[in-house]
Amino acid sequence: MKLFFAFDLDGTLLRYDNTIHPQNVEMLEKLYESGHFLVVATGRGLSACLDLAKKYPYFHYLVSNNGTLIHDVITKTTINSGTLTKEIVRILLLDCKRTGSICAISTINSLFEFSTKNKHDWLKNQKIMDLHYYNKVSEEQILEIIENETITQFAFRNDSKVIENLYQKWQKQLKNIYKVTITNRIFLDINPLSADKANAIQSLLEKNSLTPSQLIAFGDSSNDYFMLKLARFGFAMEDATPDLLEVATKKIGNCESETIATTLKTLLKNEKELFS
Question: What are the domain boundaries of the chain?
Fold first, then answer.
């Protein structure tokens, strides 16, 4: 039976140096060669995912920006489920400046970073793994990008307390208009309302004549909640957010270890019994 494996990246499949543990790589290769489907499901932008797929060529699909974009690696086609208006992005940018946050903007083809500060004290104790993928731009440049580009995600990055306050504010103001999600405790992602990893994966399951009973998922943050809830087996990483632990099949080890490979080896030993 073909199975469908979905992996979050930051804090899950990727180590803090942006590599995958060698034993986990071996497992990805084994699953790929066995004819199963593998998908990345992340809040990262598409261009960052494409770079990863070149290094680790085992993924059939790349679900990026929390489900806003679905990229088929084989056909090299991308489905976009929605965008943010220029007006709301300009307003969010003002709040980024007010709070001294890093502003991270995703388009279909590029990633941009803007901040009014050169240094952020809160970064000293944090492990943000994807900032090197972003093009640092000036305020004039970011305003030009907002005017001329299609925005698929706006993200605040700041200390967890600031992010929580921003979440309370924007969750209330944007309810039923945009999706507002805290990821990795120090990111606040704003996406089109229809965007969700689970929705994207459900569409891919249907495309390949599979069902959620054939889905195995791994994650660590609130943006993985519905993905793990959808899955037959949903595994939460060691430092997962409390809400994720509520729907996870099991809590496993951390992203620096071979825990994903170990978990899948145990699961696949009983594949016929579990998935018959």
Answer: 4-81+195-269, 86-192
Common-topology check for domains 4-81+195-269 and 86-192: no
Under a CB-based contact definition with an 8 Å cutoff, are residues 96 and 156 in contact? Answer: yes
* 55: three-class secondary structure by DSSP: helix
Please give the Cα distance from 232 to 213 (Å, whole number).
Answer: 5
What's the CATH code, domain 4-81+195-269? 3.40.50.1000
- How far apart CA 64 and CA 68 sit, in angstroms, is 6
Q: Residue 268: enclosing H or E segment and its boundaries?
A: helix 259-269
Report the pLDDT value the prediction gives residue 79, as an integer from 0 to 100: 95
Give residue 193's Cα distance to chain centre.
Answer: 16
Q: Which fold has domain 86-192?
A: 3.30.1240
**Residue 40 β-bridge partners:** 7, 62
User: Left (φ > 0), alpha (ψ -120 to 50) or beta: where does 113 sit?
Assistant: beta
Q: Which two tokens stand for residue 223?
A: 């943006």
For residues 276 and 102, which has the higher predicted lDDT (pLDDT)? 102
pLDDT confidence bin for 123, thresholds 50/70/90 = confident
DSSP classification of residue 56: S
Per-residue pLDDT of 208-240, as tens digits, reads 999 999 999 999 999 999 999 999 999 999 999
How far from chain centre, in Å, is Cα 168?
Answer: 21
Residue 14: both structure tokens together: 């990727």
Contact (CB, 8 A) for 62 and 71: yes
Q: What is the pLDDT of residue 135?
A: 86
